Amino acid sequence: MPHNKGATLFKLVIMIACCTIFLPNQAKSAAAQVTTKNYQEITPKATIDQFRIHGIKAFDSNEQDILRQWLAAGVNATRQSLGIYPRPLELYVYLKKSNQPVPWAHTRRDNHESIHFYVDARFSLDKFINDWTIYHEIAHLAIPFVGEEYAWFSEGFASYMQYQIMAQSGILTLPIEQAYANKIGPQLSLYQGEQSAASIATQLMKKRNYPAAYWGGAWFFVLAERQLQSKHNISLVHVISQYQQAGRREDDNIQALLTSLDKLINDSLFSDLLKQFEQSPSSSLYPANID
Ligand SMILES: [Zn+2]
Questions:
Q1: Tens-digit pLDDT profile for residues 73-85
Q2: What is the value of pTM for the model shown?
């Protein structure tokens, strides 16, 4: 039923968009100062042929220059961690005066998957590169649309990955464990109940408590990472980068995604973890504190 799907997609777009409204100031405290020069030095092998920019003509030539360099840097940093995506990224930019470089952004999931950035190009290139938004939004497209009921999973994934990408690109100033603890720690008390973690996160999303839903959802990926490292000695970003060429184009729901990820590691780790998030008491999965 395409019209229903369309309505679902629209709602998801709204929810995804909200993350950039509610979280930027917290996230920005974790970003280091990085110059364009040293950014290029830390991504020497990346190239810039995997994306298309739309809407750039609305900006003056100096602003176009900044935006092009920023978008290239964001694509390069993301693919360095998550691999080369099977389709070129369609990146749209729009003018939006603000007190920050990227006040608003969202992904669109239709036949033409795309990312839409509202930007104030009066900010410097460094300010753009240090902003977490682009890494979060591009990370969303490393996995398929998993349905509105799994928005906590999708946002948890992008929130978890934004710091992986920033850390591997040398942009994150804090140790990554500390960056996660700062975000996830304040949400833990909400996940101490008998209900499943998935139902708690879904309710938090409905109540528009986005930091709690997103960073509570990110805990799924912290646990997946720990199990991948201890059982298989590999990282989550490594599995995701392999997934770009092994299922990303075909999968269109969460079960298909998790089955593909499990196949890559010859284990049922991802499917089992989702089962726990949907069936076990949340308090059995979330600690009371993160040290
Ligand atoms: Zn998001």
A1: 999 999 999 998 8
A2: 0.84
